[in-house]
Amino acid sequence: MTQTIKHSPDEISITDFVKKIRSVSSYLKSKWLIILITSIAGGGLGLAYAILKKTVYTASSTFVLDDGNKSGGLNQYASLASMAGIDIGGGSAGGIFQNDNILELYRSRLMIEKTLLSEATFNGKKQQLIERYIDFNHLRDVWKQEDNNGDISFTGSSDNFSRKQDSIISKLVEVLNKQSLTVSKPDKKLSIIRVDVTNKDELFAKEFNLKLVANVNDFYKTTRTKKSNQNIQTLQFQADSVKRVLNNSINGVASAIDASPNANPSLQILRAPSQRKQIDVQASTAIYGEIVKNLELSKMSLRQETPLIQLIDSPILPLEKTKLNKLVGFFVGMLLASLSIVLILLLFRQSKLVPKA
């Protein structure tokens, strides 16, 4: 007894599939002229894009960072000092710069704004980096067309900037973060940081890279050692104050002795003023010695905590440049145009085959 296999209406056999492929192929062959013209036109557009697209320059800096956060060393002195209630800043060097947070510091508005507002020398003339960027990209012409306000200046303190000036800086920070600035660690196991700045303006890319690295590294060092510096300033102030008291006490002893140079040995009361001054001298001497010792420990701690930032490579002209090859642009344009016209033709054919309701 034979069984007949029934196919679902939605199923398609291999024969039908081959027929559809041949039908599509024949249809596209009949449209070869349209495809050819469109492909050549797309290649021409790709070639024009490659010619008109400006060269992009990349300025790169690499440096090694040693934040001085090591176990041992002065930590033993810090532990001893803490038992006496003295903080010399020799503990763990965590804080906001642990791990890879310094990478985010490079992308912060604070650092990018400070860099944009700094000056650099372009062709023998000093100019703000933000002014250089605005002039190169003809942004003032755009602002004049939008709101007839193209005479904006960015000199002076940023604290006194208007809402319009802050808005422009915020936009430039966003654009630079998305399109120009790349901060990374090429090897996660090493403490080497790479900063890349890409821009169509070669001189701007170089100067922006140099200024940004300098600003961030200076900010890092200052903030990283801020607590230790405050401790040193406090101890130095105390040491100077106690030293003045000690000097006054020494002068007081001499004055008391001079007041009674030939005191009667039977009158002990005459020796009381000089003895009281001598006690003050001894107390001040002991206090001054302890403060000086703690001050020196704090200075040692500061040297231990001060991060070492060693620049390895800095951008040097001419910078590395990226330019779209004309031949690549032509063939990519042809490929995209060919795929687009084929897809359009197939959709048009399918719409004609679908019966209207």
Notes on the protein architecture:
It contains 12 helices and 7 strands. It has 357 residues and is α+β, with helices and mostly antiparallel strands. Strands 1, 4, 5, 6 and 7 form a 5-stranded antiparallel β-sheet that branches. Helix 5 crosses helix 9 and helix 10 packs antiparallel against helix 11. The chain is elongated, with a radius of gyration of 38 Å. The two termini are 44 Å apart. The model is unreliable at 70-74 and 90-96 (pLDDT under 50). The chain crosses the membrane at residues 32-52, 327-348. This is Chain length determinant protein. Keywords: Membrane, Transmembrane, Transmembrane helix. InterPro entries: Bact_polysacc_biosynth/exp (IPR050445).
Summarize the structure.
The protein has 3 domains: 15-52 and 326-353, no CATH class; 56-80 and 91-224 and 317-322, no CATH class; 229-305. It is built from 12 helices and 7 strands. The protein has helices at 14-30, 32-52, 75-83, 101-106, 109-116, 129-136, 139-147, 163-180, 202-224, 226-259, 272-305, 326-353; strands at 56-66, 119-122, 125-128, 181-184, 192-199, 308-313, 320-322.
Shape, principal axes of CA atoms: elongated
What integer value in Å does the Rg equal? 38 Å
Number of helices: 12
> How much of the residues is beta strand, in percent?
5-15%
Largest sheet: 5 strands, antiparallel
What oligomeric state is this? single chain
- The ordered string of helix (H) and strand (E) elements is HHEHHHEEHHHEEHHHEEH
Q: Please identify the structural class as seen in this structure.
A: alpha+beta
